[in-house]
Write a structure and sequence with these properties.
32% helix; 144 residues; two-stranded antiparallel ribbon; alpha+beta
Length: 144
């Protein structure tokens, strides 16, 4: 039996990367851009001596390296939530992440509910049993 290798392999070098920033480190990781300035990245535990995969995904703002939220959500819900966050028009570089009150004030009352809705979709889903609503499922399937 002969094992024939494919003519072209996909490697991590084929993926775009973005920098993930935490309080004590920064790490470049492969990502999937879903909207300008927003990417889906693997969830990483960066507080350890070496970055470790944590399971699930993080929606990441690529210009700042800040993760919006991490979840065990399915990839389709991560994509939809990322696109919804991008569509809010929030200036993510202007966000003061000190606490929930400063985040809400930075986002602005008019955009805050749309941001919360996108984050809820992402956090509500779980890879094994996706709970996304019908609109999110339709959006995910038509965006392919």
């Amino acid at each position: 039996m002969t094992n024939t290798a494919p003519e072209q392999f996909v490697t991590l070098a084929d993926f775009p990367t973005t920098r993930i920033v935490s309080a004590d480190s920064a790490t470049d990781v492969p990502c999937e851009p879903v909207a300008p300035g927003i990417a889906i990245t693997p969830y990483l535990n960066l507080g350890e001596s070496e970055p470790r995969l944590g399971g699930g995904f993080t929606i990441t703002h690529t210009a700042s390296g800040r993760g919006f939220v991490s979840s065990q959500a399915c990839l389709e819900c991560a994509r939809v939530a990322g696109r919804r966050l991008a569509s809010t028009g929030v200036d993510w570089l202007a966000i003061d992440p000190t606490d929930a009150g400063t985040v809400k004030a930075s986002v602005g009352e008019d955009k805050y509910e749309a941001v919360v809705d996108a984050l809820r979709l992402f956090q509500r889903c779980h890879q094994r049993m996706c709970w996304h609503d019908e609109d999110a499922a339709t959006e995910a399937m038509t965006a392919r």
